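Memo to structure team: turn this sequence into structure tokens by end of day. - J.P.
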Amino acid sequence: MKSEREKMLAGEPYVAADPELGGMNVRAQELLHAFNTSAPSAAAERREVIRRLFGAVGGGFDVRPPFFCDYGSNIYAGDGLFINYDCVILDCNVVRIGDNVLIGPKAQIYTAHHPFEPAARRALVEMASPVHIGDDVWIGGGAIICPGVRVGAGSVVGAGSVVTRDIPERVVAAGNPCRVIREL
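Reply from structure team:
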């Protein structure tokens, strides 16, 4: 029998109120509290917190507080990551972020989603789908990346966009819903 965590990562319906998931969330929130309340001069300490929080992170990264996530351990980022202020990543499933990715302020990346049926929502059932962001992507401020989306390498997602479907490589995409504006 699968644990709720295994179901969550497999994209199957799961119960988020599970004790194992609750413990993982508390661990992440403790680390985030230390990160988000650190002194402006504590850049080295913040980098260490991110190393402990994320599943993996490459070199040369900068994450600006405040930053928020569910677990952190499902976030895998490459080299040269920059996350600006007030970013939210709901990492109930895997979030893979390539090398040299820029994420603007107040950007949001969601893997979590909920059933359409009210009875299932009342039963606290959730689902999650992975998000993949390719190398050399720039996600503008306030953009929302929805569950299950892939953003292709070298692309730009305009500020305030709501990305509900995959974005191909090397394009500029913007809007609500986000659509390709031009190729690069």
